[in-house]
Amino acid sequence: MNKETRQSILKKVISENNIENQSELIKCLEKENVRTTQSTISRDMRELNIIKSHNSSGRSYYRILDDYTSTEKKLTDEERLKNVIRETGVSLVQIEFINVLTVLPGNGQLLGVLIDSFRQSFSEIVACVAGDDTILILSKSKEDAEIVNDYFKQFVPEKK
To answer: How confident is the prediction for the chain on average, in pLDDT?
Structure first.
């Protein structure tokens, strides 16, 4: 099966079901005769801007970011990064030369990958470490971390 067909089926499955984790997703894809690895699904999810969101009862599920579904153009990694932070960002705190970005559970790894690809053009970011819902963004100095904080805080929703 080619990538385009697999991704089309993946979008359909995500749109029609409230899928809570990747093993459940893989089972749904197998019902659609899609046989693939978890790493391929993870790559597809990143390319399609599939994120984890929460419903009113607090349960998490995968969904496709609205900005991606409403346009045919390919988004850059920086545009994806901004969109995912806007959709899933919870808080951003600077501690000396580190920025701690907290996001909705299940979205840390995706953001870590996007930050890693974006940091090639953002010299103030040395590295990042991503968990399930927390990303540590490391800089060389406190001053560099302030620049990073100023950039990212414009996308993290303000608490009301």
So the answer is: 87
